[in-house]
Every structure is written in structure tokens, then in C-alpha cells.
């Protein structure tokens, strides 16, 4: 019986849009480098997406939070968003200069970062998701899990996890 296995080139042609989730951590360069190489070698579009909080962090001062926890003002929040937009533009420009057809998006968080990423995957019909992974400590993992883990668990689209080289295990 002669079964034909799809070649890498046949599989590669089915990847036309790559969604890259960006959070502006120092280690994002690893993710961008891999995404840029993939996009260029596959002639695929790269769609960078950064999910942001649409509202400023509140200031807590109540019985539940007896200590005043600093939040941010509207002006401070807008300044952070402007910085993030600028960083996203810079990252998209670098990938374009390297030869990758690149688009950048700022998306407001809706029901969590992972859910927002997955909604955007559906919106643009991405063929591959590229996302960085960290090694959260056990408490973080238990309480909230990781965005990458949630995306991997719930995605119907293939996911490429990129380890962040400058983050140590258990940090």
C-alpha cells in the first residue's frame, strides 16, 4: 500500500497568515526573530497583536484591600498605551525591513488575554499562532496559569510556542 505523506512544502503553502502575540517583554525579540524568519520563508503575512487593558488599573482602598494599592490615572494609562503603540509600530517596521509582510494591531482585552488572542485568530483567519512561553513559578501557574497554556489548550489553530531564552526556570 502506497500512502502519500504531505511534504513540508505542501504543508507550508497552507500557512498564509501568522498571528504573533506580543507583550513587549525584553524576550519578545526571540519571538519576533522566529516569526520574521517563518513569515519570510513561507511568504506568509505576519499579524502582530498586542492585547491591552482598555481601562486604567483601579486604586483599591477598601476592607478587602486595607492597604492603598496605587492604580493609574487616565493620563498615565493613555501614556502607557501610546508607548505600546510606538513599540508595536517599531517591531512591525523591523519585520517589514527584513522582508516580511507585517501588520500590527492593538486589541482591547475582552474576557482575558488568551480569549482576546483567540478571537483575533478567528477574525483574521490565521493559520498559525506564535506565542512566547515563560516558566512561571508554581503559585502563578496555580492561580492564573499562563496565557500561552490557555491559548494552546483552547486553540483550533496550530500554535508554535517559543521559549523565552532570557527567563530562567522558576523565576
Order of helices and strands: HEHEHEHEHHE
Helix content bin: 40-55%
Question: So how many helices?
Answer: 6
Mean pLDDT: 77
The SS-based structural class is alpha/beta
Low-confidence stretches: 1-10, 166-171
Number of strands: 5
What strand order characterises the main sheet? 3-2-1-4-5
Q: What shape does the CA trace take?
A: globular
Q: Tell me about the biggest sheet?
A: 5 strands, parallel
Outline the structure in words.
- The structure is a single chain.
- Helix 4 packs across helix 6.
- The protein is built from six helices and five strands; from the N terminus they run H-E-H-E-H-E-H-E-H-H-E.
- By secondary structure, it is of the alpha/beta class.
- The chain has a five-stranded parallel β-sheet with strand order 3-2-1-4-5, sandwiched between helices.
- The radius of gyration is 18 Å and the shape is globular.
- Mean pLDDT is 77; it is low at 1-10 and 166-171.
Amino acid at each position: 500500500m502506497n500512502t502519500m505523506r504531505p511534504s513540508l512544502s505542501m504543508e507550508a503553502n497552507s500557512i498564509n497568515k501568522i498571528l504573533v502575540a506580543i507583550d513587549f517583554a525584553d524576550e519578545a525579540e526571540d519571538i519576533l526573530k522566529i516569526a520574521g524568519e517563518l513569515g519570510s520563508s513561507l511568504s506568509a503575512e505576519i499579524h502582530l497583536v498586542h492585547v491591552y487593558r482598555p481601562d486604567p488599573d483601579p486604586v483599591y482602598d477598601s476592607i478587602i484591600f486595607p492597604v492603598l494599592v496605587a492604580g493609574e490615572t487616565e493620563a498615565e494609562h493613555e501614556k502607557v498605551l501610546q508607548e505600546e503603540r510606538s513599540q508595536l509600530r517599531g517591531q512591525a517596521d523591523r519585520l517589514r525591513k527584513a522582508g516580511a509582510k507585517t501588520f500590527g494591531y492593538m486589541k482591547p482585552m475582552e474576557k482575558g488575554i488568551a480569549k482576546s488572542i483567540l478571537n483575533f485568530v478567528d477574525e483574521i483567519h490565521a493559520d498559525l499562532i506564535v506565542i512566547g512561553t515563560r516558566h512561571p513559578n508554581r503559585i502563578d501557574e496555580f492561580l492564573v496559569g499562563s496565557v500561552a497554556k490557555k491559548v494552546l489548550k483552547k486553540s483550533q489553530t496550530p500554535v508554535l510556542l517559543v521559549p523565552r531564552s532570557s527567563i530562567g526556570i522558576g523565576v
